[in-house]
Amino acid sequence: MTARQDLGAFGERVAGHRLEASGLRILVRNVRTPGGEIDIVAAEGDETVFVEVRTRRADPGSAAESLGPAKLRRMWQCAMDYCEASGVNPERVRIDVISVDLGPGGTVAQVEHFRGVEIPD
Question: Which pTM does this prediction carry?
């Protein structure tokens, strides 16, 4: 595993704990679809939540800032592919982003959960 993959896996573990602490139930992790990968698929009530996890080492700005409109559109397409393949109602889904920012020494400095991120046209 590369250092980048290790960083991503660490961020996904942190994000999973945050989601569960917030009452979401993790359904599956690292789902591959024709359009890409979904980091975490979770459930909250009757909603299916597709979660993008962004992790950044002590760089200026937050990890969430590294998520651009093109990635959000790709993520939405991946979510729709998942819905079609799994029989999930696409009317009851949302996209969330969890930003994991690390401080010096790799300690978790900040975790932010952005719920219901708007997908740009």
Answer: 0.92
